[in-house]
Amino acid sequence: MTTTSRFVIAGGGLAAAKLAEALRANDFDGTVSLVSAEERLPYERPPLSKECLLGKKTVDDCIVDTAQWYRDHHIEVLLGTTVTGIDRASKTIALPDGTTLPYDKLALATGSRPRKLPLPGADAENVYVLRTAEDSETLLELFRGAQRLVVIGAGWIGLEVTAAARIAGLEVTVLETQQTPLEGALGTEMGAVFGGLHREHGVDLRTGVKVAEIVTRDGIATGVRLGDDSVIEADAVLVAVGARPNIELAVDAGLSTAGGVLVDESLATSDPDIVAVGDIADQQHPILGQRVRVEHWANALNQPAVAALTMLGKPGVYDKLPYFFTDQYDLGMEYTGYVAPHRDARVVVRGDLGKREFVAFWLSSSDRVLAGMNVNVWDVTDRIKQLILSGEPVDPGRLADPKSPL
After folding, report:
1. Rounded to the nearest 5°, which phi and psi values hold at 9?
2. What is the dihedral of CA 227, 228, 230, 233, to 10 degrees?
3. Proportion of the chain above pLDDT 70, given as a percent
């Protein structure tokens, strides 16, 4: 690509920042424009529900690259600006002020947004979500004054905020429609581990419940009404019921989508001049042999290196296994691999489940390792990857035996 080429990145998160880095690292000397809806420079999101809520980091500590870095690398950064449309025929993007920006190659890194609850009271004051830096800062301030928090949803964000709130001294009630926390992500057996963890730390965890309404007084949330008509009083309510990928731009532009933006192994969309990365990318994964869309930090961190090659017309394949982590109280966890939703997979535990020091493996019907989760056990991720990538059946008995080397 020549100096006359213009590459545009639509999005302002970690994936967008890493893509800008990767383009310059691959000696692209054309114009790079990064268009971010947020007013802040791109930052990492995992600390927002972890270290930032514990007061161990500020949002400024999470910035990916400084303003000086963008200047030094001649990256045009448009903050507080949303891409409102894509014209693939003229190869331009539309901006809110009515102007357009031409592109030779376009990257979609638009991320996701919290799902809303279609319930009375969901838009009341004192009802919160956690996605942005401002959300995290607002919750941290809330922790300093509130006493009772109700969290709707026992997924990763809900439980991480719960842990931070308990450490801050709040009374916390968690409401979950499933029978165990994290049931969709980990299944009932491993979800129960996290349920036990939170109950030991004084959380009123209620599973298998229906939320009927967020109760309000003068437009301010005062509690949550359940399906049995009981009311849990609260100073604040956090809604943490998952995220929705921001694919509207892609849909309106006529790109192939199906819950996410469909991309191939190189992260190219159905338009060869447009790539997609991060939360929105529904990739045909070369190792897993199926489409995978993962809303986790590792994809935003690692996919841009491949997307940059694709934009530059160079060969590239994204083949890293999905990976994510969580920190809650004294529990640290890493998860590597992928188990399709609703897939019947056998769980084998290696270590001490009661002490929460173990590695759990998900096995296929043919005893192939699909995924592994290490809880308060470290330096095993590479060996878990090797077991998954080998594609070979394992002996479940030896796998469960800590004396048998992985």
Report:
1. -115, 115
2. -20
3. 99
Percent of the chain topping pLDDT 90: 97
- The span from the CA of 213 to the CA of 231, in Å, is 9
Q: Kindly indicate the confidence band of residue 2, based on its pLDDT and cuts at 50, 70 and 90.
A: low
187: nearest Cα among 343, 335, 332:
343
Task: Name residues whose C-beta falls within 8 Å of residue 140's C-beta, 6 or more positions apart in sequence.
Answer: 52, 53, 55
List the one residue out of 323, 286, 334, 290 whose CA is nearest residue 306. Answer: 286
Q: Which amino acid is at 312?
A: L
Q: Hey, do 6-113+244-311 and 116-241 end up sharing a CATH topology, with the first three levels equal?
A: yes
Give the CATH fold of the 6-113+244-311 domain: FAD/NAD(P)-binding domain (3.50.50)
What count of other Cβ atoms lies within 10 Å of the Cβ of residue 271? Answer: 16
Residues in the chain, how many? 406
Over residues 319-345, the pLDDT tens digits come to: 999 999 999 999 999 999 999 877 789
Q: CA–CA separation, 332 vs 316, rounded Å?
A: 33
Using alpha carbons only, what angle is made at residue 295 by residues 51 and 317, rounded to the nearest 5 degrees? 120
In sequence order, the 6+-apart residues with CB closer than 8 A to the CB of 72 are none
pLDDT tens readout for residues 65-75: 999 999 999 99
Q: Which of 164, 158, 200 is nearest to 183 (CA)?
A: 158
Nearest partner of 248 among 257, 235, 239, 236, judged by Cα: 257
pLDDT at residue 186 is higher than 90: yes
What is the rounded distance in angstroms from the CA atom of residue 139 to the CA atom of residue 133?
A: 10
Tell me the pLDDT tens digit for each residue of 114-147: 999 999 999 999 999 999 999 999 999 999 999 9
Which CATH number applies to 330-400?
Answer: 3.30.390.30
Q: In the CATH scheme, what is the homologous superfamily, with its name and number, of domain 116-241? A: FAD/NAD(P)-binding domain (3.50.50.60)
Q: Is 349 helix (H, G, I), strand (E, B) or coil?
A: strand
